Amino acid sequence: EKSKMPSVLASRGLGRRLHQSKSLLAALVAVGIAPCFVSPFSRLPSSCRDRSPVALGPVKFVSKKGPEYAPVDVELMYEEFTSGEGGAPKGLERDLITKFFGDGDHRGYGNHEEALINLRKSLEAGEPFEGKDDQDGWIWVAADNSVEEGITLHLRRSKPFGYRPFLLAKRDKVGELFEKINWKVARYQLNQKLGVYDMWGRKPQPAAPRAPAEDVSK
After folding, report:
1. What is the pLDDT of residues 132-142, one digit of tens each?
2. Residue 165 class from Cβ within 10 Å (0-12 exposed, 13-18 middle, 19+ buried)?
3. Does the predicted model carry a pTM greater than 0.70?
């Protein structure tokens, strides 16, 4: 009788485990995933391969929502661009203009005066430009900086969000930019991305509302 005790206890333990398994199976049936838990010697149904915890584990859910950019006060930015005394650019600004609107190269050689004239003509014509045309009366010289090509310049007729706003002009008053341009502002703009971050890596804050202009007619 003593030799039968272990087998009796074992059978009781097995019965208890079977009862627990049936309870678990009933719960799985209730949530609709029981068919995915089958014998290890059988093949998973096709409907379970995508719903099983193992299959769902590594799935990466990618949002289709586009990037969000901070609002930009274009009028205020234009005032900053035209806060100087005009004249020809120097250093990096001059070399970039000569490279992309003239015969310049990466070493800074080329006809700088002719390139500046070509830049003005391109802004007045609005061609060639990249992206869409917002028809808001503004024309931009946007800069991009990549590992493969370095800094590149191109024209845009819409706000160049995500790019560096090198220059900004009014479509019908391009000459005003060249008469009053502040080249220090152009250099500053090369260090930030429009609507993304400023030269210190901070996200731009919405500009404070402007006070209404005083009525001088009274």
Report:
1. 998 999 999 99
2. buried
3. no
